Automatic annotation (TrEMBL):
NCBIfam families listed in its UniProt record: 2oxo_dh_E1, PRK09404.1, PRK12270.1
Keyword Oxidoreductase attached: yes
Record Gene3D superfamilies: 3.40.50.12470, 3.40.50.970, Multifunctional 2-oxoglutarate metabolism enzyme, C-terminal domain (3.40.50.11610), TPP helical domain (1.10.287.1150)
SMART domains the record matches: Transket_pyr
Listed GO MF terms: oxoglutarate dehydrogenase (succinyl-transferring) activity; thiamine pyrophosphate binding
Organism: Candidatus Nitrosoglobus terrae
Protein name: 2-oxoglutarate dehydrogenase E1 component
Amino acid sequence: MSTSVKKQAIVSPLYVANAAYLEDLYEIYLKDPHSVSIPWRDWFDQIQNNPSEQHAISMPLSYSPVPAIQPTSPRRIATTAETAAKQAAVLQLINAYRFRGHQKANIDPLHFYERPEIPDLDPAFYGLTKEDEDTSFCTGSFIGLDRAPLQEILNVIKQIYCSTIGAEYMHITETAEKRWIQDYLERSRANRVLTTELKHHILERLTAAEGLEHYLHTKYIGQKRFSLEGGDSLIPLLDNLILRAGNKRVEEIVIGMTHRGRLNVLVNILGKLPRDLFMEFEGHHESDNQHSGDVKYHLGFSSDIDTPGGLVHIALAFNPSHLEIIGPVVEGSVRARQQRRGDELGDKVLPVLIHGDSAFAGQGVVMENFNMSQSRGFHTGGTVHIVINNQIGFTTSNPLDTRSSVYCTDVAKMVQAPIFHVNGDDPDAVIFITNLAFDYRMAFKKDVVIDLVCYRRQGHNEADEPAVTQPLMYQKIRVHPTTRYLYAEQLIAQGVIAPEDPDRMLEDYRKILEQGINVAPRIIGNQHSFKVNWKVFLGTVWDQPVETGVSLPRLQDLATGVNQIPEEFKLHSRVSNIWADRHKMATGTLPVDWGFAEILAYATLLDEDYSVRLTGQDSSRGTFFHRHAMIHNQKDGSTYTPLAHLNPKVKFSVIDSLLSEEAVLAFEYGYAAAEPNTLVIWEAQFGDFMNGAQVVIDQFISSGEAKWSRLCGLTLFLPHGYEGQGPEHSSARLERFLQLCAEHNIQVCVVTTPAQIFHVLRRQMLRPYRKPLVVMMPKSLLRHRLSVSSLDDFTSGTFQLIIGEMDDINPDLVGRVILCCGKVYYDLLQARRAQQQHNVAILRLEQLYPFPKQRLEEELKYYGNAKEIIWCQEEPQNQGAWDLLQHRLQGCLHQNQTLYYRGRPSSAAPAVGYFNLHVKQQQTLIAEALGKVEGRG
C-alpha cells in the first residue's frame, strides 16, 4: 500500500466541510442503498441496524466513492470511529426531524387524539446520550446553525418541526424543491414574529369570523349554515393569501369550497352584503320565476379586492352537495381565464380549493384532480389546497372510519405535493404557512396543501347534536376557548392591545353587521377588465335561425390548409391513405366522410375567430381511427396539428386526456362555463363511460342554469349504436339525458350524416345561445358507404332537426311512417330498398330535445294517408328514447294515425353480449318495423 493510500485510509471524512456531503450521501442511501458505493452502504447499514451501538461501528477504510473532500478549515470534528459515528448520528437525528417531526408537532388544538411515540426522534435511538448534550456538532445542511451543542440543536429543530406546524416535504424527490422548503422553514425561524399592525388585522379578521357566526346563531336559531366555528383561522388565512397574491401581481383567484364556512367567506372575504344573506335566511329571494334557485350555502359570488399590488378579482364557484366535484370545475375555469389573459405559466390566475377532511380523503375525484395537475392539457400552474380539518368528518364519523392513512391529506403525496399541517388556534403560524404555501406554488407551479387542523364547535349542521356520537370530543369543545379569545389574550399579554379592545372590536363589527352593509375590507365592486359579456346570450331561443353553410371557395381553401403537412413528415400508411382521400374530398371527387366533416367544422370556426378545445381519451386520433386532428411522424415520433396553424389569433387544442371521466368532464364544464367563445367538446371513448361522470351531468350540465343561472355551451360527444359489441360498448344511455330535459336546459341530438355534424357544431357557436349540447355520435357510420355528404351539403342550409324521406317515394302511397334516430335508419333504409317497399316512409329525428314538434307535425301531415306511425329503436324498450318521447310523438299525430313501438324488448342490461343473438334481435326489429303491425305498441 502506498503512503498516499495509507493517509487517505486513516483520515476521517467528517471534516466540517464534509458534513453536508455526508448528509447528501446518506439521503441518497435512504432512497436506494444500491446507489452508493459498497463501503458506504455497509457503514450506513451498520448505523441503520444498530443505532444504539454506533460507538462500536468502524469507519470503512475506503470510505468514499470519490476522493475525499478536503476541509476548508484545519479544524476537524473527529478522527476516531466513535466520534465520527456520533457526528453521523446527529445528522441522522436532524434528518429524522425533517422526515417525522410533524408526527410529534402540536397541531391539534384539542389535544384529543394521542400522538404516537416516534423512536426516530429520540437521540438515544442513534446512540446519543446525556453526556453528548453539551458536545458541539456540525449541523451539515441545517440552515442558520453551522455548529452547536447537541441540546441547542435539539431545541432549534423541535421549534421548527414540532411546534404548531408539522411540515411534510421530505417525500419530494426533486432536490431543489426540498431544499427550498427546508431553507424557508429553517432560515426564517427567527423572522416569524409578525408586526403589530398585522396582529391587529388578524384579530379583526378573527373577530369578523366569530362575530358573524354568533350573530346568525342567535338570530336564525336551528337553521343550517354549516358554521365555521372552530376553524375561524380560515378567514385571516384567505385574507392574507389574497393580499400576498396581489403583491405578487396575481390578478384573479378562483375559489372552490364546500359548505363548511362558506357563508362566512362570502360575507367576510368576498363582500356579500349581510342584508342579502339575512334575506336568504328569512326565505326571501329575487326570482324571475325562470330558475329554481339553490340553498344559500351552495351559492357563488365574485368581487374585486384592492391590494397594495393591484386589483385582484375573486370568484367563488357555485357548488352542489357532491363536495369535491367542484375541484376540477374550478381548475377548468382557471385554465380558461389563464388562456384569455395569455397566462401560460399561471402567474396571473390562481386556483384555491377548500376541502373538508373526510371528503379530501374519501372522494376519488380528489385523486383524479391531483392526477391532472401537471398534465399538459389540464395544468393550471399549481393549486393552493386548504383542508378545514375538523377531525371528525361529517355526522358521526371517526378518523378510523374515514380513511386508512395517518392524515387525511396523504392522497396529495401521489404528486409529491408538500403538506403543511398547522394548528388552527395559532393564527401566527397559519399566516406563516399561508405565505410558505403560496410562495412555493409561485416558485414551482405545483400543488401545495395546507392542513388547517381545527375542530367543529357545532354539529354537522346546526340542528345536529354531535355529542350523541362524540361525547368525549364535545366535552372538550364545550370548555375550549375560541381562537379569537386565545389570540386576544396573547396580544394583551404582549402589550399589543388593551384588555378592553377585543370586546370593543366585537361590538363594532356587530353594529356594522346589523346595518347590513359590507363588512369585508378593501372591496371595490366588480371592475376587472377580463370579464366576459354573457348578456348577449340571455333571452335567446334555441330555434333562432342561423346560417351555418360556408361558401365553396372558402370551404375548399380551408380544406387545403388542413390537408397541408410539413414536407419532411412521414405518415403511417393508413393515415397516408386517409390524407389522400381528404384531398379528393376537398375537390369534390369523393364524398365527404365523418372525420373530414368534423375537421372542416373546426376549421371554419377557427377562421371566424372562435377557439376550439377537444378533450377525450383518444381524441387526437379518434377512438375509431377517424379524426386524425393530430398526426405523428413515423420517422421520429414528432407530432403536427394542422388546425393549430390556421388562425394565430385563436387556439385549437386537441387533448388526449387521462383515463378519467368525472374529473375531466368537470374540468371541461368549468372551462366552457368561463369561456363562451370557445367550442369546448368532451368526448367519451365509448358513450357508456359517461356514467362515470354522472355527478357532473346531474349537478352541473343539466341543472346549473336552473339552480345558479350559469350558462354553459359545453358539447358532449358520446359514441352510441348497437354494433354487437356487448352491454358496455353500445349505449350512451340516451334515456338518462332525455329524463333530465326540461325548461330548454340542454340539447340532445342524434346526427346521422357528416354534414349534420358540421352544421350542428357551427350552430353551437354561431347562435347567440349557450346551452350544453349532447351528441349521440356514431361508430360504424364513420365509414358507412351511405353516411356521406357532398360539398353542396356544407355550402348551404343549416342543421336539420328532422331529415325527411330521401328516396323517391310517392307520399300518397305511404301507409306507414317509421320514425327513428341514429344508426338504425341505415339498417331500415337498406332493408326497405332490398324489399322494394314503396309504401313505407322513414323519417329521422336528428334533435330529440328541444323537441321539434312543429317540424314533425309538418312531416306527418305530408303523409296524410299513413295510418301507422312506428317508433323504431335499437335500444331495449325501457331504454333509449321511447319511454320519454312517446307522449311527445303522440301529440304530433293526425286524425286516424296510431303510434306503435318496434324495437328490442325491455332489458336490465343495455345490450346482449353474444353477437349471434345481437344479429337475430336486430333482424327481428327491422322486420317488425317494416312488416305488418299486429296490435298496439
